[in-house]
Amino acid sequence: MIRNGLNSLVILGSWVIWNRRNHCVFDGATPSIAEALILAGEERRWWLMAGARGLSFLIAQLSGAA
Fold it and tell me: Would you say which domain of life the source belongs to (predicted)?
């Protein structure tokens, strides 16, 4: 299950970077790591609502470790 969570996390990160890059290239936005991290958090919530079980398991494991 952790492997599925890590795979989802990598795909989510790639998705956010790709979308942010397209926004900068095609819409003239300024690159911003802070905005990319905010978007990643929003996307993560959407993915969890959509049922990304591996990602929710990984987040639960990380929350329990902290």
Answer: Eukaryota
Residue 30 backbone dihedrals phi, psi, to 5 degrees: -85, 135
Phi and psi at residue 51, to the nearest 5°: 105, 30
- Residue 58's contacts (CB-CB under 8 Å, 6 or more residues apart) are 1, 2, 4, 5, 6, 8, 9
Q: What is the rounded distance in angstroms from the CA atom of residue 50 to the CA atom of residue 34?
A: 24
- Owning domain of residue 46: 2-65
Residue 9: how many CB atoms within 10 A of its CB?
A: 18
Q: What digits encode the pLDDT tens for the residues 31-63? A: 999 999 999 999 999 998 998 888 888 888 888
- The total of structural domains in the chain comes to 1
Residue type at 21 in one-letter notation: R
